[in-house]
Amino acid sequence: MKWLRSRWFKTIMLSILGMIIALVSYGLLQLIEPVSLAPITKSSQSIKFAGRALLVASDADMVATAYADGKLERVAGVEDTLTVIGLQNALNSTNIQTLRVSNSVMSWPQIIAVSPNGQRAYVVEVRRRPNNNIQAFASIDQMPDGQQLTVVDIADLNQPKVLESIAIGRNPEHVSISPDGRFLAVNLEEPGRELVIIQLQEDGHLGKRWFFPMSVDNSQSGNGAAIWHPSGKYIAMTQDSDSRVGFYKVDINSSGDISILPYSEPLTVGNHLSNARFTTDGRFLLVPDLKWRTWGIRAFNFLLNPKGEMIAIRFEPESGKLPEVVSRVEVGLSPEGFALSSDNKLIATVNMRRTYFSPNLPPAWRGKHYSSLSLVKFNSQSGKLETIDEYGFEGLLPEQATFDAEGKSLAVVIFNYRESFPKTGAVEFWNVINSNKPRLERTGLKLNVVRGAHDIVLVP
């Protein structure tokens, strides 16, 4: 037939063949693992972690791969937990205390806040525990709504205790405490009440509340994670759905009532932002971009996501200048959480990569089998970021890390390992070697905690 010999037919067929070859080639590339496991190094530097305690939140209601297949693999008797690890003595299990505190991984890793005096911890529930007979959901989004904010007394690390647990609104997702310890900022999934500011009483209990609408362009999905500025006069909020960051002025009148007003138009920053944090002097806001909305198709977003980024935004309201992005660097796949050293010179992003994939589908894929850390240098004067190296390690769905008070060690939480019906997660410890080219050393020291470890906070 003549059309078989036509130029257009040949062009179309060659184009289709080219697309097939490109897709197959890209798929084969995903079988190549460019990140190697970091070796365990016997260092001359002893394993110490400066600070008073570590607080670890564990969501026992699901395993890491439930995001992919909806299978929770719940284990009877293993429940949501807040783990308190005392740091006064050697790092071992004898310094660990646990409390039943409802919490969930279904938010960014910013669900614990600690009072400036280190006496109280505040934990938001996010989603609540499913009924006992439920072992799977068609989608993990069917997890029941949460409501609770739990106040924990950690004055005595050997006997932490729950002071109160109070319903504050639908799906409280993130919590941040003001620098003076007087207020909490909590994000909610409630139309017209997306942000609640809670006054804290002197004994740590919850007091008066103010609710604020924080929708973006009339979209309720724009509400992300709020974080207080070190001055206490501003709040920044990531707006993950539209990849922007909003900055807001916090005013307190003579009667003690609070108002929240936009400082500027939201700043377009990236593709899919996690939770942010300010530098100590408040001049920069740091935020990871996971790039989970690159393709517009859910399966492709998590199967073919590119490497993430670390982004620095200058924020100097006293200068009268608008916020602006001053630096961005490439880090590992899916950098959901990050740690900032106390001197603000080093950042460690926690890259879960693609460890959320279920055991069998896909059978092999780049980033499925282990996670990584990216070490980044930060210039606190200019805001410039510089990626130094990436370090692989075992474990699924790590979401957060923290440096110790001296910036010499790093602790990373691991949700669970790739096994059926896991009971434990872990905190893994790394040494920070400071030199002209800083690096991380994997010590091999791990402390087991209840499975589902997803947020960690240092009590200095």
Automatic annotation (TrEMBL):
Q: Which UniProt keywords apply?
A: Membrane, Transmembrane, Transmembrane helix
Asked if the record carries the keyword Transmembrane, the reply is: yes
What is the protein name stated in its UniProt record? Uncharacterized protein
In terms of Gene3D superfamilies, this protein maps to: YVTN repeat-like/Quinoprotein amine dehydrogenase
Q: Taxonomy-wise, where does this protein's organism fall, top ranks first?
A: Bacteria, Bacillati, Cyanobacteriota, Cyanophyceae, Nostocales
Isomerase is among the record's keywords: no
Give the transmembrane region(s): 12-32
Q: Which InterPro entries match?
A: Haem_d1_sf, Host-pathogen_enzymatic-act, WD40/YVTN_repeat-like_dom_sf
